[in-house]
Amino acid sequence: MFATPVSLRRTLMVGFAASALLMGACSSGDKADIPEISVEAASLELSKADQTALSRYFEVKPRSGSEATTMDLLTALELDSETSTQAAREIDGSNVTYTNWSAEHHGSVVKADQVRLIGLHEVDGRPTFDKMIVNDLRAEDFEDEGQVKTVEASLGEMTVVSPSPDLAQSLARLLRGEAGADVTNNDTVSDMSDNQSFGALHLQDLTATAFEDGQEGTLSIAQVVVGNNKSDERLDLIIETVDFDWLDGGPGGSFDLEMDGLTLLGLNTSSDAKNSLPTPNMGIIGTYMQVLSPSGTMPYRQIDLGKLNLKSRIFDLTTEGFEGDSETTGSKTTMRSVLSPMVITFKDAAGTPVAPYMDVLRENGLAEITMKGSQTMTLDRKDDRMVVSDARLEIDEGLRTRCDYAVQGMMASAEYMKAQGLSTPTLHIDGNKAQEADFDRYMADMEAFRLAQTEANKRIKIESLNCDIQDVAGNSLVDRGYKVAAEVTGKPVAVLKGAAKTMIALGSLTARSEFERDMMDTVGSGLIDFIDTPGQTMTVTMAPERPVSITALTGQDGSEPTIKPLGLSVKVQ
Fold first, then answer.
1. What's the superkingdom here (predicted)?
2. Given this model, what pLDDT does residue 285 score?
3. Which residue from 86, 97, 214, 395 puts its CA 20 to 30 A from 335's CA?
């Protein structure tokens, strides 16, 4: 190949950059008017679950047992101690009832009107029970070692069903007032979640206050209901009415959180779901993979976040909530989600980084920012094809996006990862401090996982993409952003635009690969036009003749990365 085309390309790019700076890139005078993108999305009208919807999780079968066996199990559980007292203890077969329970440990006091253990038995030679019910639980001067200095809490009722032996021991320590006990035995978080498992949990009328060095936190929750379907590896969760206040006179400031409630049904707790959590080296596609298991099951059946208000020293956040659901018909599963308007309001917080810029934010309508959006995703397990349609987002009524795209091979990629038997690497620490060997093992696991992920990515192919990015005429977010930047930096808008356009135009000249150069050549002119003239719509389209592997774009397959197979085009109008 001869060098003339490359020289010509660079010459043209320099000329293009110069004309962009002088003339404002492409002229918009002859461009057609584009209809405004609509981001309005109707509520999914999901039915909120209540405690009765999860009542099946709390049903346990009667278990026989002798008083002698039950006493042996109580001794092994170490629930009774020299520092605990009760008005009465009644044993009925495998069931035990304590009345007016009280325990003290190093100044911490725990009291309960009644503690009931139903179905005491052994699992792998260790004591546990079918159900624990605690009524009117109070904790005073409860010291949590290494975390919060003092906690005072009360619970109207606590019910735990089918706890693992480890969790049963932890609950016994809790009732003895030993909050600082090491329940995890220095295991990893993933190990702890398995060891501290349960079938169902119900907390009602929870209040807690924590004190530490002039700081005070107060939490109240009307109800928490959790049902863990271990056979189907699904979890249901209901939280009702949360209020959390944190008082802090320091630089962090105080904040208050109020939440109407959260309903989360059918959460995927399988090992496939746990092992597909995103890692920094997985990228965007890897992040999408976290919602899929090799069987193509979705991460949840329904999620409904109610109204939420967060008030802090620097900003307030409010939203009417978030809804999402999934429905399977034959080989197809469809997920829908709707984010109700979320409003972020910045405050005049003296002494904070925001304070000097409040006037300019207000003048440009950015002291209060709103966001809303919706999306529909369909996975066809038969064809191994994922289609995202009507992915819409609006930011402060000034910028709207609407995207549709299709990807193949997500399930094949997940199947490959499963076949390798690799899980997301975790830093396992032997003892209290990480040793060099621990980090070496972790880094080796990360490298093996990265290589496997690269191979898995070869199966993921981009089929199509069409994305409109609309800067709303008359309320341009791009224009307002430039005005704020000008006030903050002290530089005129024209200078800031010129600098941005120069960086884009020179991107092709300084590209380190064909991929970067082609991307800047294709996207550069449209992007310069888009940021130069407010109120325009930029359309990015990928229309490859045949699906393109993402590793061919990134060069992970060993080839020179290139965007040519994508059929990429950018249009501004």
1. Bacteria
2. 35
3. 395
